[in-house]
Design goal:
The structure is a single chain. By secondary structure, the chain is α+β, with helices and mostly antiparallel strands. Helix content is about 25%, strand content about 35%. It has two domains: about 5-185, Nucleotide cyclase, GGDEF domain (Alpha-Beta Plaits, 2-Layer Sandwich); about 190-295, Tumour Suppressor Smad4, CATH 2.60.200. The protein has helices at about 20-25, 25-45, 65-80, 115-125, 135-140, 140-145, 180-185; strands at about 5-15, 50-55, 60-65, 95-105, 110, 130-135, 150-155, 165-170, 190-195, 200-205, 210-215, 220, 235-240, 240-245, 250-255, 260-265, 270, 275-280, 290-295. Strands 1, 2, 3, 4, 5, 6, 7 and 8 form an eight-stranded mixed beta sheet that branches. Helix 1 crosses helix 2 and helix 2 packs antiparallel against helix 3 (about 65-80).
Length: about 300
């Protein structure tokens, strides 16, 4: 029997790099690790009032009655999987896509445009990311919308216009998921990030959560470079790591431990060792506004 369309949150989650697990760990051990990860995702789904629709290889498809329940489950899945011990030097990670909208239910399966969009969101996500649409974000309560980062626009098959996509920041979300927060042990070391910009030096320590960088005077670190965006990037502390999140139009150029310079745009970079940050252009184009960084501890 087919029901009238109703709104559900559809979640797709798959294990990132599962193919390489078989090469590195062998078939039996890899299958065991993937099975453990799938079990975590199934358990989280039930705990948050959802239902597993199907499991396809290393991917699960779930539905939830509300977008809030789907977002909380996605965050909890990421948190629990990230806490698993590495096996053979390989750490498991998942990619999650979420969409809230009308679906058709038939014989315990779900169909419709929202399902296709959710699957596309999962394909857009990177390891450790939760990607959703702006329409889904608009259906969230204000406390959750504060944990959203705009990413880009993408084309989706069957849709005339591109869709705005966003990332749900799950690492620091007490409002987003109480389960993930309770299980988060917090910083595991006293690492610090030292930043030098001209004559100014900033030490980003465990007591701080984030700082912003850009051309606008409201930023914590103001970059007087015409190629820099007004809100160019932000730095977040996630447990014992520091992450640079590019939000700019022209991208961010980085060097790391003397290696060749590379560029990120609307991406994240985990600080390691020491290096430099240039805003909107390569270092050699204009080294005046460079930021030197060093991770200590």
């Amino acid at each position: 029997m087919q029901n009238v369309p109703g709104n559900l949150a559809i979640l797709f989650a798959d294990i990132s790099g599962s193919t390489s697990l078989y090469e590195k760990l062998g078939d039996a051990r890899a299958l065991e690790c993937i099975g453990l990860c799938l079990n975590i995702m199934r358990e989280v789904t039930v705990e948050h009032g959802g239902r597993v629709v199907k499991t396809i290889g290393d991917e699960v498809m779930c539905v939830f009655p509300t977008v809030s329940a789907g977002a909380k489950a996605a965050a909890d899945m990421q948190s629990r999987v990230s806490m698993q011990e590495p096996t053979g030097g390989q750490r498991l990670a998942i990619r999650v896509g979420l969409q809230y909208g009308p679906v058709l239910e038939q014989a315990d399966d779900v169909f419709g445009d929202s399902v296709n969009v959710a699957a596309r969101m999962a394909s857009e996500a990177k390891a450790g990311q939760i990607v959703t649409t702006r329409d889904s974000v608009d259906a969230m309560p204000p406390s959750m919308r504060a944990l959203i980062r705009n990413l880009d626009t993408v084309s989706v098959k069957g849709k005339e216009e591109d869709i705005a996509i966003c990332e749900i920041i799950w690492q620091h979300g007490e409002e987003l998921t109480s389960l993930a927060t309770r299980m988060d042990p917090g910083p595991t070391s006293q690492t610090r990030l030292r930043l030098r910009h001209g004559e100014r030096e900033i030490v980003f320590g465990p007591e701080q959560k984030q700082m912003t960088l850009g051309r606008d005077a409201s930023n914590d670190l103001v970059i007087a470079d015409r190629k820099a965006s007004r809100q160019h990037a932000r730095i977040e502390r996630r447990r014992d790591k520091y992450v640079l999140i590019d939000q700019s139009s022209n991208g961010t150029h980085l060097t790391l431990n003397g290696q060749p310079e590379f560029r990120i745009r609307r991406e994240e970079f985990i600080f390691q060792g020491r290096g430099s940050i240039s805003f909107g252009h390569p270092y050699e184009s204009d080294p005046a506004e460079v930021v030197i960084f060093e991770v200590e501890g």
